[in-house]
Amino acid sequence: MPAKPTLIPLWVKLAYTAFMAVLLPIYLKNYGASNFLYFCDVAAIMTLVAIWLESPLLLSAALVGIFLPQMLWVADFLVEVAGRLLGRGWHLTSMTKYMFDPPYFLRFLSFFHFWLPFLLMWLVYRVGYDRRGVLLWSGMMWVLLTVCYAWMPPTSPKIDSVTKEQLRDPNKPVNINYVYNIQSDDEPQQWMDPDLYFAAYLAVLLAIYAVTHALFLATLPHRTPIAPPKNIADPPLAA
Fold it and tell me: Whole-angstrom Cα distance, residue 174 to residue 35?
């Protein structure tokens, strides 16, 4: 039986592994273990496993899960860069303003938010898109959001509005994956009941994944199932 062809170059595997070997301990030290519940961090870790396994399922799941949200991150970052270069003070959502504040080595590591979706697109192009990825990620999303909503720290202000004293470590995650407020980590959303917001947020994410899944079904090559080898010793069927 012929050996399975290598679809992802070794240098890509080694380079990504080296990057993650630096990122993981530094993120753990600075942000704590709960930071790895963020979708982007989960996708980054999934990618580390998937490139060595050359798994279309894991790579497709990570791509579906982060592509559209990370494209918003990319757009916001580019607007921030353009605004600073031109002295215009432009902002899209301001979600990437932190990228221009020290410590800059942490910001360099956080730049994976920019390039990871493009890397995943290329990787999935190499191995083929697995339509089961959207189901895997949707299930993971439900578990992650439930954990974040039930057991992780909710929104809380960083600074006391009166005394201007710092109330919490800004590096320690709260409102992980925006389960309490998609606009701010400082206070809960006021539009609706928190449980209703959580359910609506989950439904919106499922809709985003469905759109992303349809996009990649139409544009990326599909994973081709490997047919089981034929047994050449089998006698021919009688006529």
Answer: 9
Q: Where are the domains of the chain?
A: 10-219
SS3 7: coil
Token pair 């990825």: residue = 133
Residue 23 main-chain phi, psi, to 5 deg:
-65, -45
Spatial distance between the Cα atoms of 67 and 121, rounded to a whole number of angstroms: 9
| Mean per-residue pLDDT, 16-42 | 97
| 77, 107 Cβ separation under 8 angstroms | no
Distances, alpha carbon 112 to alpha carbons 117, 140, 148, 218, 231, in Å: 9, 21, 22, 26, 47
177-189 residue pLDDT tens: 999 999 999 999 9
Inform me whether the pLDDT recorded for 75 exceeds 70: yes
CA–CA separation, 50 and 199 (whole Å) = 30
